Amino acid sequence: MTSEPGSPVSLDERAGDNGRGETVSSRSQIAEVSSARSHSGLAERLFHWVTGGAAWLVLLILLAVAYSMASGGALAFKTFGFGFITSTSWDVPNGQFGALVAIYGTLVTSAIALIIAVPISIGIALFLTEIAPVWARQPIAVAIELLAAVPSIIYGMWGLFMFAPFMASHVEPWINDHLGVLPVVGPLFTGPPIGIGMLTAGIVLGIMVIPFIASVARDVFNAVPPTLIESAVALGATRWERLWNVTLPYTRSAIVGAIFLGLGRALGETMAVTFVLGNAHDLSASLLMPSNSIAAAIANEFTEADTELYRSSLVALAFLLFIVTFIVLSLAKLMLARVERTMGRTN
């Protein structure tokens, strides 16, 4: 019996039978194919569940951390209200706590770190991928990546015992004399040359985040398709034109991601900042003056918090650091999306 065109074909018909036992063999092969497809479908669903579960688990952990910090700092928010964020007071004996100095110190030191680290990191990555001799690229790249593995407390001790005295004796006097007299920006660079302060902390932070940004940027630059580079060369582009018009636009999103990584590292850094920031709850416009950051305040004072309101205020600082980091990274992401849309229209 022959099946009509388009009608379902039975297993026996597809297997066939030539009278020499080949029917059994064909049925076995079909059964193996069906079993393999069944296993493949199961593996596909298992992969979907595992990856989806991992993603949702991270989100749940993030929400749990945020809820834990918000509930722990509820007493401080309830006691001081919105004034906890806008107040510069941090008077432990009298039970007055405000977060503005710590927020200001965190943002300023992170901004200084990025101003220093971003151009240096991208320059290092371009040098390693485009300019450096081939024999030197790998050793330099490994050395830079190893810097990322140095504990932050090492950077802090180096900053306190070596870099801060150098700043106090050589750099800050020159800044006072030459930049402190400038109009508008002069107040940022005036103050006693004591070595420790927001400028020193920002520079140390910048040195710390350079390996992170440079390593990611180097890998991204190496991922540019050779056909794009060869096309630019074929059109007569110079090295600078090729880097500026091909490499950097093609890797723009990934470079911004690397900068996000460095920014997150700078915002949450604790030990290195604690050593060189001065840990003073004073709000000053001068970058040479000691200040405080959220992470440094928590690390320094949590073991000394002997009242429930004091502990709640420190936990509230941690919640504010979470919010500040979330807002800063979200704004940067929105800015990147806007730039992408603009470039898409102009292109």
Q: Give the mean pLDDT.
A: 85
The low-confidence runs, each spanning 5 or more residues with pLDDT under 50, are 1-17
Radius of gyration: 30 Å
Question: N- to C-terminal separation?
Answer: 64 Å
Structural class: mainly alpha
Neighbour order of strands in the largest sheet: 1-2
Please tally the helical runs, counting DSSP H or I stretches of 4 or more residues: 14
SSE string, helices as H and strands as E: HHHHEEHHHHHHHHHH
Proportion of residues in helical segments = over 70%
Largest sheet: 2 strands, antiparallel
Strand content: under 5%
Topology summary:
Layout (H helix, E strand, L loop, with lengths): L10 H5 L6 H51 L1 H7 L2 H4 L3 E2 L4 E2 L2 H32 L2 H14 L4 H27 L19 H25 L3 H9 L4 H12 L1 H17 L2 H6 L17 H8 L6 H39 L1
Antiparallel strand pairs: 1-2
Helix pairs in contact: 2-14, 3-14, 5-8, 5-11, 5-13, 6-8, 7-8, 8-11, 9-10, 11-14, 13-14
